[in-house]
Amino acid sequence: MPAVYLGVRHHSPACARLVERTIGQLRPAHVLVEGPAEMNGRLDELLLGHELPVAVFSHYRDADRSATSWAPLCDYSPEWVALRAGRAAGAEVRFIDLPAWHPAFADRTNRYADAEARYAEATERLCRHFAVDSTDALWDRLFEVEPEDGLAERLDAYFSLVRGDAEADGRDRVREAYMAAWVRSALAVSGGRPVLVVTGGFHQPALRALVDDAPGAGGAGQGGPGVPADAADASAAGPEEWATGADGWPEVPVPPAGASAGSFLVPYSFRQLDSFSGYQSGMPSPGYYQRMWESGPEAAADGLLRVVVERLRARAYAVSTADLIAARSLSQGLTALRGHPRPARIDVLDGLAGALITDDLDGPLPWTSRSALAAGTHPAVVEMVAACSGDRTGRLHPATPAPPLVHDVAAQLARLRLDRPPGTVYSLDLMDPEDLERSRVLHRLRVLAVPGLTRTAGPEHGVDPVFTERWESAPAAGREAALVEAGAYGATLADAAVSALTGRTHGIGARADALAGALFDAVLCGAGALSGPLLSELADRVGGVRTPGPLGEVLATALGLWRHDRVYGVARGPLLGAVIDGAVVRLLWLVEGARGAAGVDGPRLRAVAALRDAVLHAPGLLSVERETVTGIALRISRDRCAPLDLRGAAFGLHRALGTGAPEDPGEAVHTVAAGGADAVGDWLAGLFAVAREEVTGSAAGGPASLIAVLDDFLGNLPDQDFLSGLPALRQAFAYFPPRERERIAARLLERRGLHGSARSLLRTTADPLLTVRAAALERDVSRLLTRYGLGAAP
After folding, report:
1. Is residue 468 classed as helix, strand or coil in its secondary structure?
2. Angle between the N-to-C axes of helices 626-638 and 574-592, in degrees from 0 to 180, rounded to the nearest 10
3. pTM recorded for the entire structure
4. Integer Cα distance of 158 and 8 in angstroms
5. Backbone angles phi, psi at 625, to 5 degrees
6. HEC secondary structure over 288-346
7. What is the pLDDT of residues 497-528, one digit of tens each?
8. From CA 375, how far away is CA 591, in angstroms rounded?
């Protein structure tokens, strides 16, 4: 007897009922289900008696690739019903799809992600024909609210149409060839009894062609010894490519040597299943379809009306009894007008929207497409979507196996007394060894994205002089699932945190801001002494940063921790040494090649200041000599194509690091002054950012030369030039703290032979720019009065 193929839409109540009914009628020998074949030896675990939804979480990691994916199941998933009903009917039940780690699933986080995007043209034609807005509304119209008679034939016609218009890619063809091998094997050992095949509808026509229409159909696939090396290129994959084991079934591919892979059950939630939250597959609005599965379309419609009104009233949104009656009447009218034999989800939602929303909306209603809710969505629409989504979260049976990480975390939390009930506040003294260990455990959980404990206070960067932390525990939905998923990173909390940080650093690329965060997280987790790969990865990422500013932040963070840290124990440690050296070398390369328009780039100037500190305070870490750095600085300071602020910073860097006679700041100012007061302001901003004390402090020749040169230059500027350059000059002198500004003001008074309070000059209540403009205006008025003989006697 040939196989019976049921093409289904994932998470469809109508398809789930069809699967259950077909199994009861056929009493098949085998039920083959699209799902991860590596779970076949663990079906008893899957059927323990969990509260659905749950998901099979799969992970894979090797030197070149890491991937995670989920295969979610709820009460009305056809795959779940096939497992449950097939077992109850005495059939041998098996998953027949490739393992989640296989290259055929590369870049796919959801095994059941539909191929709907590939047959959009066919569904768009059907939507126009049936006058509906979306594929979801079309599906309801054709299958969910229609009578069950003829459902299998309608599904066959639908999937044949959409597959006929779509081109499967090489990855899908590899999967279909593998699933076809399982079907042939089942037919070979079924003894003539039926074999039921339950897969996504996109694959059903291809499987039927591969098995029933192939030469010698019905025999077990015999084949060669392996998995196609590149699924994307295996466009002609056939049954001969899949080896058959001693038990007569296709062999399940195993991960390559050196790779880590595994699968575990995790709790799932309706929110994760909902397309309005970004889910990729199957039906939207899981709460609504759960009610439809349990009680039928009429009860689901009534339940949605009631729940939406209750949710809106709980949020003080005025909904009267008359509004409820109007919504019900509109829904019933739309059901009749659209020719639906029973109310569809869109009938109820449109009825609610028509009765409850009187405001103009900024865009179409979200159920007319498939996307997450946008910010600013009308509150009634938000509650309608939330009511359709539902708030159910699955729960695993207590006997469900868990990865080693789950047990390690439980043991560490108990040992450190961090397992207290929600609402507990943990105040940690980071100078205390036991509290520091607690902090590291909590930070490791944080970088693994395990919810339940949140840091509300503590140091924000490597040199933040804060030595305490405050953490709060709270109820955390999804904590169990997050711990299981984090088990993909390692068997212990420390190893998992290091692996997560290494992977995160690998994915950062040239984003230095994220790199600085990863570096500090590594310190907080105590990862400095744990991982050579993490250290190498951080150093490699530093070498790829393309802009000086963010790289300077990384350098400043690493250098501050390397010099001063006594809390986290990384001072003078290897974790930071390689990062500092790599950042210095890369920064020198970036700043020497910098070009740009006028203006002041504050982050770039801070990067040069960090470069100065590294050469001064950590020369033993660097692979470049101090003389090399000063030579580069001198070249940049004289390069007329370099940005002016960077030329000033390079002048200051050379002044701060040089051992010979310093460059004359007066000559440099006169060179830049050709560009006007604006140019001098930009140049001074760079200089003061890097070498403020060296050029204005008590060093020999410093204050006399630079302050005198600036005083003479600015005093000789025409009023208009001075006014135009004043903002840039003020920005430059903003690098001085108040005490140093007062010292400069005192020297200016002294230079003029005046006696008075320098401090009072700096404490004017008026805006200095406004004061200067007022003085210029007064001079202009005086000149006009004098010109026309209207000037008053003194």
Report:
1. strand
2. 30
3. 0.69
4. 10
5. -80, 155
6. HHHHHHHHCHHHHHHHHHHHHHHHHHHCCCCCCHHHHHHHHHHHHHHHHHCCCCCCCHH
7. 888 887 777 766 556 666 777 778 888 888 75
8. 41
